[in-house]
Every structure is written in structure tokens, then in C-alpha cells.
Amino acid sequence: MTCTIFYSTEMPKEQAKVTGGVPTKPMRWAVDYVVKTPDGRTVVESTKTIQHATFDELRAIMDHTIGAIGDEVGNVANFISWRATAHGGKRKSRKGGRSR
User: Fold this and answer.
1) H-run or E-run covering 52
2) What is the tens place of the pLDDT at every residue in 27-46?
3) pLDDT at 90
4) Which of 26, 69, 71, 83 has minimal Cβ neighbours within 10 Å of its Cβ?
5) Is 20:87 a contact under the CB 8 Å cutoff?
6) What SS3 state is found at 92?
7) Which residues pair with 45 in a beta bridge?
8) Per residue in 41-76, pLDDT tens?
9) Who's near 11: CB < 8 A, 6+ residues apart?
10) Could you tell me which residues come within 8 angstroms of residue 54 by beta carbon, excluding any fewer than 6 positions away?
11) What is the DSSP letter of 59?
């Protein structure tokens, strides 16, 4: 199972787009994010790994991270986007039946 979450300030209603099944257990997330200022300059383009967070915790962590970056640039960012991906979860049995 792979879950990808994409958020951008240019999306309608600023809602995150979720692809795949949202994991119910804490997962390891790989996150890429970009922050740009009105003059077209890319302020932050980075990657980070978040260890064992649920979907709701991930949203809170990214809101805090983007808020901290906004404070660094003087709250003048006009474009923010981030993408988080988690891999893993339950795998279907390949044998097609129960083990005996």
C-alpha cells in the first residue's frame, strides 16, 4: 500500500489531495516541500523524513513546519506546496489461502 498526500496553496479550497489508502497506523513519511516568495525566488526546497506519524499527526507537523518557515521569510510566501509519501502496510497473501 502506498499513500501520497499533495498540498498546494494553488489548489481549490486549499485542500490536500490524497491518493491511495490512508494508513490507520503510524507510518514513516518522506516529505518534499517548496516555499516561494512574491519575487519568484525559491526560499526553501527540501526533503525530510518523519518517523512514525499518523495521517492527522502528519498534517499537524507539516502545518507547524510551514508556519516556522513562513516566520523565517517574514510571512511573505505566495506559494507553498508539499508532498508526503508512505509505503508499506498490509500485504495480501500470495499463496491464496491460509497457512497450515
Assistant:
1) strand 42-53
2) 889 988 888 888 877 877 77
3) 59
4) 71
5) no
6) coil
7) 34
8) 787 777 778 888 988 898 888 888 888 877 777 778
9) 17
10) 23, 24, 25, 26, 27
11) H
